[in-house]
Structure formats: structure tokens, C-alpha cells
Amino acid sequence: MLELKKLSKTYKNGVKALNGINLTISQGEFVYIIGSTGSGKSTLIKIIDGEEVPTSGRCEVIGINVGKLKHSKVPIYRRNIGVVFQDFRLLEAKTVFENIAFALEVINAPKSLIRKRVREVMNLVGLDDKGHSFPNQLSGGQQQRVAIARALANRPMLLIADEPTGNLDPEMSNDIMTLLEKINREEQTTILMVTHDRELVNRHLKRTITLDSGHIKSDVLGGGY
Amino acid sequence: MANFFRRVTRHLKEGFWGVIRHGSMSISSISAVTITLLIIGVFLIFSINVDNITKDIEESVAIVAIVSFDYEEQTELDRIETSAKAISGVNDVIFSSKDQEWEYYQNLYETEETAAIFGPFQDVNPMHHAFQIEIENGDKIEEIATGIEAIDGIDSVEYGGASAVMLVSALNSIRYGGFVLVMAVSALAIFLIANTIKLTIYARHKEIGIMRNVGATNGYIRSPFVIEGMIIGFIGAIIPVTLCVFGYIYVYDLLGGVFLTEMFVMIPPHPFVLLLVAILSGTGILVGLVGSFFSVTKYLRWKR
Predict the structure, then answer these.
(1) I need a labelling partner for B3 at 20 to 30 A (CA). Which of A70, A140, B63, B65 fits?
(2) What is the arrangement of strands in the sheet containing B63-67, beginning at the earlier edge strand?
(3) In chain A, which among 88-107 make CB contacts under 8 A with chain B?
(4) Is residue A187 helix, strand or coil?
(5) Interface ipTM
(6) pLDDT per position in chain B (304 positions), as tens?
(7) Are B204 and B299 spatial neighbours (Cβ–Cβ below 8 Å)?
């Protein structure tokens, strides 16, 4: 479902972020991407999300050559992908329900469908009773659940989690991790998780890809840090 | 179709909420619109009135051509009339016979004594046949007068002369000056509003980023901002429209419909104020639309 071939990215200021990455991820996999700061993790995610264009090589997601997409087609492509960030990125002025519904309103889904799907994902992330709360009334872990629910609302094939536990304490991190595993299992969503959390990676063993200055240093099934 | 309406209602809703949610930003934009529209409104009232007054005065500037006694045959009169009409800038040529002129002249001094003085001369009409020449605008009055004087059979031509020419050119300068001023103030308004809206967009780049992340197209992201801009423009127009409309009606009544002298007749408030309402609210809405459209588009263009 995700195929990178000799993928390289050099920024305008001359920084070489990625150097000929080859990588294949199949549908339904759960993969960690680890590596120190500046190893190219963020660039990799930006290319997969269509935000950056590779300098050379190919990035193919669900059969779409992402780097070759026209600007106007990127948003349509992005509906196949859910992204979760370290800082949650919720709309403070909207309730939990509205935040999740927003992802569906944007693709102009009918109201009845929105209501049904929002309840489904709220149930999936375990926030059934928080629909009317505002983000600042929730704990960090709960806010991250809302962000995950929003990312899942569109039934994406791929969920990218960029340091989803970076702002959470270990216990909450563990909860989020369990939730992601549940999503991976129940919704068959492919999950790509960027993390720094050594303990988490070692506790929930998965395929682990280590990036180092733009190269893949190691790619181990059930690896650990 | 259902899709389309769903989208439009969503945008409208988002736009309205946007104005309310970003209250302080909206207020600053609305004040910018209010102040600039107020200035535009005052200049507009002033310049449209000056425009109207100059037109009135220009229209009243006319040329009278006096026919020589040697050319009083009907065929000659017809020939003069045709040649006068052929001169460019001439709107209409009206014949006034010597009898009409004589009557008009006597009526100018109609008191009992003068009637007695004119009485004995009733049958010896000293007047010439004449043509009243209406012209399109005052700019060419001198040129046209010379042209008419050159026609065979015209004894002399009367018009205001140099003073009429000067009056017309002075009024023209006032009119163009007013027009340029209104244009300059309008340009300033658009710049100011576009700038304020740019600030509100910058304040919301986080929101735009989230919309992008969940797969909103640029058109979808832009619409609520544009609607917000139009609403801000409309709200900003309310105070200037009210002040200009009622202010004009008040001033009109206060001055009795004339400005300084009887020569400068003001435009009656009705239906002039309706024009003001249309222009000011239209400008407000348009400026909001254009300003927000360009600001958002500029913000969105370079990002994927």
C-alpha cells in the first residue's frame, strides 16, 4: 500500500533530508519509525502526506504517485490518510463532536451520515460521553483521542501518527498505544507511527524502521529500540 | 444540487460564526470599513452634487445667433438652420422669429409705463430673427460660437464670452478633482481592508492548517473567509449609510435645497439617497469580498 523507491529530498537551503530511501509497507501493518532529530522522519511524513515534493525517486501510496499530484488534487488524496500530531491540533472554538464532524463536513458528507460516523469513532476511541465538551476541558490523553477520532472519521487507509504520545505521561501514552493497536486490528488501518518513546517501542514490539541522516539504518520485524 | 446547497449553507454558517468567534478582529475590520466608507460617502455626496450643478450650469450656457436683415427669406433661414445643426457639439437649433423676439423683449420690462413707451412702436419691429443654439457641453462653447458666426447671414453671436468659458472650466476642475479624490480614498479603503483581513487570516493559520490536514480543498477553505469578508463589509456599511442618508436629508432641508446661492441647486434626496445606499453597501460588500479573496488566495497559493 505504501512504496518508496530511491526517494530523496534536498531542501532549497541545501539540507539533504532523505537519501535514496527504499521501503514497502503492506496493508494492515503497524510500523514504527524511529531516529534522532534531523534524521529525516518529518520530511518522510511530509512527503507521504503530499506536503512536500520529493527531489527524486517515487512515493506511491494506494497506487497514487504522491509527488506528481497537482496542487488541486492533493486535498482529495489526503482524504485517504489520517494524520495525528503531537500537539493534537484541535479547533479550540469547536466541541469534540464538531471537531470530529469537521473532517466529514469538509468532504461535504450529508448530515445524517456525519452524525452516525462521528458517534462510531467516538465510541471507538472511548469518548462517547464527551461530545459536548470543548478541547480545553479535556486531559491531554483525551484530546489526543479526539484527534485520532478525527483522523479516522474519513475511514483512511493509512494513519500517520507523528509523535502521538510526545506530550503525554507514560500511563496515557500506553492507553493511546492500546487504542492505536485496536484501530489497527479492528479497522484494518495501516499505521505509521513516528516516535521517540523508547519504552513504548520496547513494550509494544512492532516492525521498526530506524532512520539515520536520511538513510534507513535498520528495518527489523518486532524490533524494539 | 442537494450537495451544492449543503455546501452553501455550511459556508454561510461558518462565515457567520467566523465573524462572531473572531469578535475583536471583526470589530477592527468593521471599523476600518466604517471609517473609509464614511469618507467615501461624504466625498461621493459632494462630488455628485458638484457634478450635477456643473451640468445644470453648462446646460444653461447657450448661444444666441442673430440673423442679418438681408437674409430673412425662408430659404435662407432654412439654410442657416441646417448649417448650424451640422456643427459638431450642437444639440439643437431653435428658431425664434423677430415677432417672438420683440414680444419677449417687451415682456422683459413689463410695467405700465414701459408698455406705454413701446406702444407706439408696436408695428415697427426693430428686432432680428434669431436662433437659440443648445450645445452638448460647455467645453467647446467658444469654438462653436466662432463656427456659427462664420455662417453666411449671421449678423452676430452672443454668449457669455470669456467669463462663461472660465466658469465652465472652473467647474470642470472641481468635478475632476472630486472624482480623483473619491478614487484615491476608495483605493485606500481597499488596501486598508485587505490588510486587516490579511491579519485575521494570519491569526487563523492554525485553523487553515487543520482544514488542510483533513483534506479540505482550497475552494472550501476560502469560502467561509470570503463570506466573512462580505458580512464584515456589509456591517461596516451600516453606520456610513445611515449617517449619509439621514445627514443628507437633514442638510438638504436645512439649506432649503440650495447650496450657498440659488445657482447651486442640490439634488433632491429622493431617489438620490437610494443610490447612496446602493453604492456604499455595494462598495462595502465588494471590498470585503475582494480583500478576503486575495488575502486567502495569497496565503494558500504556495502550500500543498
Answers:
(1) A70
(2) B90-96, B130-135, B63-67, B154-158
(3) 89-91, 93, 102-103, 105-107
(4) coil
(5) 0.80
(6) 677 888 888 888 877 887 787 777 788 888 888 888 888 888 888 888 888 877 777 766 778 888 888 888 888 888 888 888 888 888 888 888 888 887 777 777 666 676 677 767 767 777 888 888 888 776 777 788 888 888 888 888 887 666 667 777 787 787 788 778 778 877 777 777 677 777 777 777 877 888 888 888 888 888 888 888 888 889 999 999 999 999 999 999 998 888 777 777 888 888 889 999 999 999 889 888 888 888 888 878 767 7
(7) no
Nearest to A154 among B10, B207, B215 (CB): B215
Domain ranges of chain B: 2-57+166-301, 62-159
Residue among A13, A83, A89 at smallest CA distance from A44: A83
Query: Where do the domains of chain A lie?
Result: 29-51+71-220
Question: How distant is the Cα of A36 from the closest Cα of chain B, in angstroms?
Answer: 25
Q: Chain B: which residues have CB within 8 Å of chain A? A: 3, 6-7, 10, 21, 206-207, 209-218, 220, 303-304
Q: Using a CB-CB distance cutoff of 8 angstroms, which residues of chain A are in contact with residue B304?
A: 50-53, 71, 74
- Rounded to whole angstroms, the Cα distance separating B242 from B276 reads 10
Q: Is B66 exposed, middle or buried (0-12, 13-18, 19+ CB in 10 A)?
A: middle
Distance of alpha carbon B27 from alpha carbon A119, whole angstroms: 37
Q: How far is it, in rounded angstroms, from Cα A10 to Cα A52?
A: 11
Question: Residue A71's closest chain B neighbor by CA?
Answer: B304
First-to-last C-alpha distance (Å) of chain B: 29
Q: What is the pTM of this model?
A: 0.67
The whole-angstrom distance between B205's CA and the closest CA on chain A is 11
Distance CA A148, CA A159 (A): 9
The C-alpha atoms of residue B184 and residue B164 are separated, in whole angstroms, by: 30
**Interchain contact, B217 vs A105, CB within 8 Å:** no
User: Which of 3.40.50.1100, 3.30.70.3040, 3.40.50.620, 3.40.50.300 would CATH assign to domain B62-159?
Assistant: 3.30.70.3040
Fold classification of A29-51+71-220 (topology level)? Rossmann fold (3.40.50)
